[in-house]
C-alpha cells in the first residue's frame, strides 16, 4: 500500500501550522510534507516530527518572494547567488528534519527563452550537486498553467529529458498525478514510463484539486498502480479539502492501517 504524507500547507488548516503535526498523526498519517518551513525555527519543526513520530517526506527550497508572486529562482538568470544562499537555508532545515528530498521550484519565466533555459539547467545541476553532498535527492516538478500561469517548468516530457541529459544520480522527477492529468492526460502510461526517475509522488482530484476519489481520475487505481510498479516512496496529499480536513478523510480509511512509522527518512 502507498505511504501517504499529509500536506500541512493545505490540510488541517483549521489549526495553526505547528499544531497540524499532531492533527496529521491523530488522523493516522505517519509522514508529512509542506511547501515551506521557513516561518518557523528548524528546531520547532524537528520537535514536532519527533514528538509525533512523523517522517518529513518533502519540502521546497526557498522560492524568492512568495508573497510578491515569485515561484522559484532557478530559471531567473540574475538570481543565481540568491538561489545558492537559499539552498544553504534549506539544507539547515533538511538537517534538522531528516528529510531525504528537496524540491527546487523553477520560477516564472518564458520556457522558450534561451537565457531562462540556460539559467535553469545551471541552477538544477548546481543544486543537485550541492544537496547530493549531504546525501539528499533533488526533485523537479512540472506544474500546470491553470494553477500557475507563467511557470517555467510545465511539461513532464521536457523535465524527463533534462533529468536524463544531466544524468545526476540524485536528480529525480516529482510526479504530481493532478498536474500530469491536466497537462497531458494518460497518467498511467507516463507513470509506467517514468517510474525509474520518480523521486516523489503527489495526488489530488481533477479538476477541483480536492480529496482523491472526488474527480475524474480513478485515484484508487493509480495508487494500486504505484504498488504494482514497486514505488517505495511517499505520496504527498497536496489537495484542498472540500470541507473540514477530517470530514474528508474517508478516501484514506482503506490505507490507514498500512501506514508505517519509520521515525527517520
Strand content: 5-15%
Major beta-sheet overview: 8 strands, parallel, barrel
Overall strand count: 8
Rg computed from alpha carbons, rounded to a whole number of angstroms? 17 Å
What is the N-to-C order of secondary-structure elements (H for helix, E for strand)? EHEHEHEHEHEHHEHEH
**Proportion of residues in helical segments:** 25-40%
Gross morphology: globular
Separate helix tally: 9
Mean pLDDT: 97
Strand order of the biggest β-sheet: 1-2-3-4-5-6-7-8
Distance between the termini: 18 Å
Structural class: alpha/beta
Features:
alpha/beta, eight-stranded parallel β-barrel, 8 strands
Q: Overview of this structure, please?
A:
The chain is of the alpha/beta class. The protein is built from nine helices and eight strands. The protein has helices spanning 20-26, 42-51, 80-97, 114-132, 156-166, 177-183, 187-194, 219-228, 253-256, and strands at residues 3-7, 31-33, 55-60, 101-103, 137-140, 171-176, 198-203, 234-237. An eight-stranded parallel barrel has the order 1-2-3-4-5-6-7-8, surrounded by five helices. β1, α1 and β2 (31-33) form a beta-alpha-beta unit. α3 runs parallel beside α4. The longest helix is centred in the middle third of the chain and has 19 residues, at 114-132. The relative contact order is 0.16.
Topology of this structure?
Layout: E1 3-7, H1 20-26, E2 31-33, H2 42-51, E3 55-60, H3 80-97, E4 101-103, H4 114-132, E5 137-140, H5 156-166, E6 171-176, H6 177-183, H7 187-194, E7 198-203, H8 219-228, E8 234-237, H9 253-256
Helix pairs in contact: 2-3, 3-4
